[in-house]
Specification:
The protein has 162 residues and is mostly helical. The chain has 7 helices and 2 strands. It starts with 7 loop residues before the first helix and ends with a strand.
Length: 162
């Protein structure tokens, strides 16, 4: 399968996806008619299910990864090193450390952008800023072990279920 096997709109859709656009945005960018976001999302879903299009996307992504010599393992190692470096500063950069943990969760598939967390406000939410990075690491480890119920103990011994 070559790019020549795709229509001009399909090629534009593939290019937009490779450039980082989400499906709906790529659908509109490629020139497809979408009067609303639902139409664009449904159209993008159909295009992504097309074997020719999904194959073109996979080949282009694989080629890009090879050209820049990037793998999931390399990214994980780099984020892990950056996370530890951010924590070991004289004044730890907690924002950078949290961003590294977030990126690690995304790269390894532990974070699902479509999932939601239902938090019932019981006053304990103000204590989230007091949660240590060690506790966050433990939570990520628990998620990795497929634990479904997690609890964070707040400073005043309240429990917040996530």
């Amino acid at each position: 399968m070559t790019v020549e096997d795709l229509t001009a709109k399909q090629t534009a859709f593939v290019d937009a996806i490779i450039s980082g656009a989400n499906g709906a945005a790529a659908y509109v960018t490629a020139g497809y008619n979408a009067p609303n976001i639902n139409t664009a999302t449904a159209g993008a879903s159909r295009l992504l299910a097309n074997v020719k299009i999904s194959t073109a996307i996979a080949r282009l992504k694989a080629g890009t990864a090879q050209r820049v010599d990037v793998s999931q393992d390399k990214l994980v190692a780099e984020y892990w090193d950056t996370y530890h470096a951010a924590r070991q500063l004289d004044t730890p950069n907690l924002t950078a450390a949290r961003q590294c943990l977030d990126s690690l969760a995304r790269i390894t598939g532990l974070f699902d952008a479509h999932s939601t967390v239902d938090v019932q406000h019981s006053g304990a939410i103000e204590h989230l800023s007091a949660v240590s990075l060690d506790t966050l690491q433990e939570l990520l480890s628990a998620i990795d072990q497929q634990t479904t119920t997690l609890a964070i103990e707040a400073p005043d011994s309240e429990i917040l279920d996530a």
